[in-house]
Amino acid sequence: MLNFASVWEGIADALPDADAAAHGQDRRSWGEWEQRAAKLAGALAAHGVGADDKVALYLYNGFEYLEAQFAAFKNGSVPCNVNYRYLADELAYLLETADAKVVVFDASLADRVADVRDRCPELSLLVQVGDGELLDGAVAYDDLLASGDSAPRLDRAGDELWFLYTGGTTGNPKAVMWPHGELIANMGLHYGVLGREVPTSVDDAVAAAVEVHGRNRATRLLAAAPLMHGTSGISSLQTLTLGGMVATLEG
Questions:
Q1: Which letter does DSSP use for residue 1 in this model?
Q2: Distance of CA 57 to CAs 12, 19, 98, 182, 189, Å?
Q3: What does the alpha-carbon distance between residue 5 and residue 7 come to, in Å, rounded to a whole number?
Q4: Which listed residue, of 6, 52, 78, 223, carries a Cα 20 to 30 Å from 157's Cα?
Protein backbone atom coordinates (compact mmCIF):
# COMPACT_ATOMS: atom_id res chain seq x y z
CA MET A 1 0.00 0.00 0.00
CA LEU A 2 1.05 3.57 -0.62
CA ASN A 3 2.02 6.14 2.00
CA PHE A 4 1.31 9.85 1.62
CA ALA A 5 4.82 10.94 2.63
CA SER A 6 6.48 8.63 0.13
CA VAL A 7 4.24 9.82 -2.72
CA TRP A 8 4.63 13.49 -1.80
CA GLU A 9 8.42 13.18 -1.58
CA GLY A 10 8.44 11.71 -5.08
CA ILE A 11 6.24 14.51 -6.41
CA ALA A 12 8.50 17.14 -4.80
CA ASP A 13 11.49 15.59 -6.54
CA ALA A 14 9.71 15.50 -9.92
CA LEU A 15 7.92 18.88 -9.72
CA PRO A 16 9.95 21.01 -7.28
CA ASP A 17 8.86 24.35 -8.74
CA ALA A 18 5.14 23.61 -8.93
CA ASP A 19 2.86 25.21 -6.34
CA ALA A 20 1.97 22.98 -3.39
CA ALA A 21 0.36 25.45 -0.99
CA ALA A 22 -0.88 29.02 -0.85
CA HIS A 23 -2.01 31.14 2.08
CA GLY A 24 -3.31 34.55 1.12
CA GLN A 25 -0.77 35.96 -1.33
CA ASP A 26 2.07 33.70 -0.17
CA ARG A 27 2.94 30.44 -1.89
CA ARG A 28 5.13 27.44 -1.25
CA SER A 29 6.50 25.30 -4.03
CA TRP A 30 6.58 21.54 -3.75
CA GLY A 31 10.34 21.70 -3.21
CA GLU A 32 10.05 24.30 -0.43
CA TRP A 33 7.17 22.49 1.25
CA GLU A 34 8.99 19.16 1.28
CA GLN A 35 12.22 20.71 2.56
CA ARG A 36 10.45 22.50 5.43
CA ALA A 37 8.52 19.36 6.36
CA ALA A 38 11.77 17.36 6.36
CA LYS A 39 13.40 19.91 8.69
CA LEU A 40 10.40 19.83 11.01
CA ALA A 41 10.36 16.03 10.95
CA GLY A 42 14.03 16.02 11.92
CA ALA A 43 13.36 18.39 14.80
CA LEU A 44 10.45 16.26 16.03
CA ALA A 45 12.60 13.15 15.82
CA ALA A 46 15.26 14.88 17.93
CA HIS A 47 12.55 15.27 20.59
CA GLY A 48 11.83 11.55 20.47
CA VAL A 49 8.78 11.72 18.20
CA GLY A 50 8.66 8.75 15.87
CA ALA A 51 6.60 5.86 14.54
CA ASP A 52 3.02 5.67 15.84
CA ASP A 53 3.41 8.73 18.07
CA LYS A 54 0.42 11.04 17.87
CA VAL A 55 0.87 14.67 16.78
CA ALA A 56 -2.20 16.79 17.56
CA LEU A 57 -2.89 19.76 15.26
CA TYR A 58 -4.83 22.40 17.20
CA LEU A 59 -4.54 24.96 14.43
CA TYR A 60 -6.36 27.25 12.06
CA ASN A 61 -5.80 26.90 8.32
CA GLY A 62 -2.33 27.83 7.12
CA PHE A 63 1.04 26.56 5.99
CA GLU A 64 1.84 25.17 9.43
CA TYR A 65 -1.07 22.74 9.38
CA LEU A 66 0.03 21.20 6.09
CA GLU A 67 3.74 21.21 7.03
CA ALA A 68 3.22 19.64 10.44
CA GLN A 69 0.98 16.95 8.96
CA PHE A 70 3.59 16.14 6.29
CA ALA A 71 6.36 16.10 8.93
CA ALA A 72 4.37 13.63 11.04
CA PHE A 73 3.85 11.41 8.00
CA LYS A 74 7.58 11.49 7.28
CA ASN A 75 8.38 10.10 10.74
CA GLY A 76 5.67 7.47 10.67
CA SER A 77 3.77 9.48 13.28
CA VAL A 78 0.01 9.96 13.30
CA PRO A 79 -1.41 13.48 12.87
CA CYS A 80 -4.64 14.10 14.79
CA ASN A 81 -7.00 16.91 13.85
CA VAL A 82 -8.26 18.99 16.78
CA ASN A 83 -11.27 21.27 16.45
CA TYR A 84 -10.10 24.76 17.38
CA ARG A 85 -13.51 25.41 18.94
CA TYR A 86 -12.91 22.78 21.62
CA LEU A 87 -12.62 24.05 25.15
CA ALA A 88 -10.85 22.40 28.08
CA ASP A 89 -12.89 19.22 28.61
CA GLU A 90 -13.17 18.25 24.94
CA LEU A 91 -9.55 19.18 24.29
CA ALA A 92 -8.27 17.18 27.26
CA TYR A 93 -10.44 14.19 26.31
CA LEU A 94 -9.11 14.16 22.75
CA LEU A 95 -5.45 14.56 23.73
CA GLU A 96 -5.78 11.85 26.39
CA THR A 97 -7.60 9.30 24.25
CA ALA A 98 -5.20 9.91 21.35
CA ASP A 99 -2.17 9.48 23.66
CA ALA A 100 -0.91 12.66 22.00
CA LYS A 101 2.82 13.18 22.46
CA VAL A 102 2.89 16.55 20.66
CA VAL A 103 0.39 19.35 20.27
CA VAL A 104 1.00 22.03 17.65
CA PHE A 105 -1.27 24.94 18.53
CA ASP A 106 -2.06 28.48 17.48
CA ALA A 107 -0.86 31.18 19.86
CA SER A 108 -4.44 32.38 20.35
CA LEU A 109 -5.28 28.96 21.83
CA ALA A 110 -2.38 28.88 24.30
CA ASP A 111 -4.59 29.47 27.35
CA ARG A 112 -6.64 26.37 26.54
CA VAL A 113 -3.50 24.26 26.16
CA ALA A 114 -2.25 25.60 29.49
CA ASP A 115 -5.53 24.55 31.12
CA VAL A 116 -5.25 20.89 30.05
CA ARG A 117 -1.52 20.11 29.83
CA ASP A 118 -1.41 18.55 33.31
CA ARG A 119 -4.33 16.27 32.42
CA CYS A 120 -2.44 14.72 29.48
CA PRO A 121 0.43 12.58 30.83
CA GLU A 122 1.73 11.54 27.40
CA LEU A 123 2.09 15.13 26.21
CA SER A 124 5.79 15.96 26.10
CA LEU A 125 6.18 18.67 23.43
CA LEU A 126 4.16 21.87 23.00
CA VAL A 127 4.75 23.75 19.73
CA GLN A 128 3.30 27.25 19.40
CA VAL A 129 2.46 28.80 16.03
CA GLY A 130 2.17 32.54 15.48
CA ASP A 131 2.93 35.74 17.31
CA GLY A 132 2.23 36.38 20.95
CA GLU A 133 3.74 35.56 24.29
CA LEU A 134 5.21 32.08 24.27
CA LEU A 135 3.45 29.65 26.59
CA ASP A 136 5.73 28.56 29.41
CA GLY A 137 7.38 25.29 28.44
CA ALA A 138 6.44 25.57 24.78
CA VAL A 139 8.77 25.98 21.80
CA ALA A 140 8.04 28.37 18.95
CA TYR A 141 7.22 26.62 15.68
CA ASP A 142 9.78 28.57 13.64
CA ASP A 143 12.49 27.93 16.24
CA LEU A 144 11.73 24.22 16.25
CA LEU A 145 11.82 24.06 12.47
CA ALA A 146 15.15 25.90 12.37
CA SER A 147 16.68 23.59 14.96
CA GLY A 148 16.39 20.35 13.07
CA ASP A 149 18.42 18.51 10.47
CA SER A 150 16.36 17.16 7.60
CA ALA A 151 14.86 13.80 8.48
CA PRO A 152 16.01 10.88 6.32
CA ARG A 153 13.48 9.37 3.98
CA LEU A 154 12.07 6.09 5.23
CA ASP A 155 10.69 2.92 3.72
CA ARG A 156 7.00 2.95 4.61
CA ALA A 157 4.38 0.21 4.46
CA GLY A 158 1.22 2.21 3.72
CA ASP A 159 -0.59 0.93 6.82
CA GLU A 160 0.49 4.00 8.81
CA LEU A 161 -2.51 5.91 10.16
CA TRP A 162 -4.20 9.26 9.74
CA PHE A 163 -6.64 10.15 12.52
CA LEU A 164 -9.85 12.01 11.78
CA TYR A 165 -11.52 13.00 15.02
CA THR A 166 -15.24 13.68 14.70
CA GLY A 167 -17.56 15.23 17.23
CA GLY A 168 -20.54 17.43 17.84
CA THR A 169 -23.37 14.94 17.37
CA THR A 170 -22.27 11.76 19.13
CA GLY A 171 -20.94 12.86 22.49
CA ASN A 172 -17.19 12.95 23.02
CA PRO A 173 -14.87 13.18 19.99
CA LYS A 174 -14.10 9.85 18.33
CA ALA A 175 -11.23 9.00 16.00
CA VAL A 176 -11.61 7.36 12.62
CA MET A 177 -8.26 5.58 12.19
CA TRP A 178 -7.53 5.52 8.47
CA PRO A 179 -4.52 3.77 6.89
CA HIS A 180 -2.82 5.85 4.18
CA GLY A 181 -3.12 3.03 1.66
CA GLU A 182 -6.88 2.80 2.06
CA LEU A 183 -7.35 6.56 1.65
CA ILE A 184 -5.34 6.48 -1.56
CA ALA A 185 -7.14 3.34 -2.77
CA ASN A 186 -10.41 5.29 -2.57
CA MET A 187 -9.17 7.83 -5.16
CA GLY A 188 -10.50 5.84 -8.09
CA LEU A 189 -12.58 8.72 -9.47
CA HIS A 190 -9.59 11.08 -9.29
CA TYR A 191 -7.39 8.77 -11.33
CA GLY A 192 -10.25 7.67 -13.57
CA VAL A 193 -10.44 11.10 -15.23
CA LEU A 194 -6.86 10.50 -16.38
CA GLY A 195 -7.75 7.09 -17.74
CA ARG A 196 -5.58 5.54 -15.04
CA GLU A 197 -6.05 2.94 -12.37
CA VAL A 198 -5.27 3.88 -8.78
CA PRO A 199 -1.47 3.63 -8.52
CA THR A 200 0.09 0.80 -6.56
CA SER A 201 3.63 2.19 -6.49
CA VAL A 202 5.24 5.55 -5.77
CA ASP A 203 6.59 5.67 -9.33
CA ASP A 204 3.07 5.26 -10.75
CA ALA A 205 1.68 7.94 -8.43
CA VAL A 206 4.42 10.39 -9.37
CA ALA A 207 3.93 9.64 -13.08
CA ALA A 208 0.23 10.47 -12.72
CA ALA A 209 1.05 13.80 -11.04
CA VAL A 210 3.54 14.65 -13.80
CA GLU A 211 0.92 13.77 -16.41
CA VAL A 212 -1.65 16.05 -14.76
CA HIS A 213 0.81 18.93 -14.88
CA GLY A 214 1.74 18.09 -18.46
CA ARG A 215 -1.93 18.45 -19.39
CA ASN A 216 -2.08 21.76 -17.50
CA ARG A 217 -4.86 20.24 -15.38
CA ALA A 218 -3.31 20.39 -11.92
CA THR A 219 -5.99 20.79 -9.24
CA ARG A 220 -6.06 23.94 -7.12
CA LEU A 221 -8.18 23.32 -4.06
CA LEU A 222 -9.56 26.24 -2.08
CA ALA A 223 -9.78 24.74 1.41
CA ALA A 224 -12.49 27.14 2.56
CA ALA A 225 -13.57 24.70 5.27
CA PRO A 226 -11.14 24.10 8.15
CA LEU A 227 -8.34 21.62 7.42
CA MET A 228 -9.17 20.08 10.79
CA HIS A 229 -12.56 19.07 9.34
CA GLY A 230 -12.97 16.06 7.10
CA THR A 231 -14.30 18.16 4.21
CA SER A 232 -11.02 19.98 3.60
CA GLY A 233 -8.88 17.44 5.44
CA ILE A 234 -9.61 14.55 3.08
CA SER A 235 -9.87 16.62 -0.12
CA SER A 236 -6.49 18.23 0.63
CA LEU A 237 -4.87 14.80 0.97
CA GLN A 238 -6.33 13.82 -2.40
CA THR A 239 -5.32 17.07 -4.09
CA LEU A 240 -1.73 16.81 -2.90
CA THR A 241 -1.48 13.15 -3.91
CA LEU A 242 -2.27 14.25 -7.47
CA GLY A 243 0.44 16.92 -7.28
CA GLY A 244 -1.99 19.82 -6.89
CA MET A 245 -2.06 22.90 -4.67
CA VAL A 246 -4.02 23.58 -1.47
CA ALA A 247 -4.98 27.22 -0.92
CA THR A 248 -6.17 28.54 2.44
CA LEU A 249 -7.74 31.85 3.38
CA GLU A 250 -6.09 34.32 5.73
CA GLY A 251 -9.27 34.97 7.69
A1: -
A2: 23, 23, 12, 22, 29
A3: 6
A4: 223
- Is this prediction's pTM over 0.90? yes
Q: Which of 154, 158, 156 is nearest to 2 (CA)?
A: 158
CA gap 86, 122 in Å, rounded: 19
Count how many Cα atoms sit within 13 Å of the Cα of residue 214 in the half-sphere of its side chain.
8
* 228, 57 Cβ separation under 8 angstroms: yes
Buried-state track 86-104, b at ≥16 Cβ within 10 A, e below 16: beeebbbbbbeebebbbbb
Of 65, 46, 49, the closest CA to residue 57 belongs to 65
Among residues 20, 16, 15, 21, which one has the least CA distance to residue 31?
16
Distance of alpha carbon 128 from alpha carbon 45, whole angstroms: 17
Which residues make Cβ contacts (< 8 Å) with residue 155, sequence separation at least 6?
none
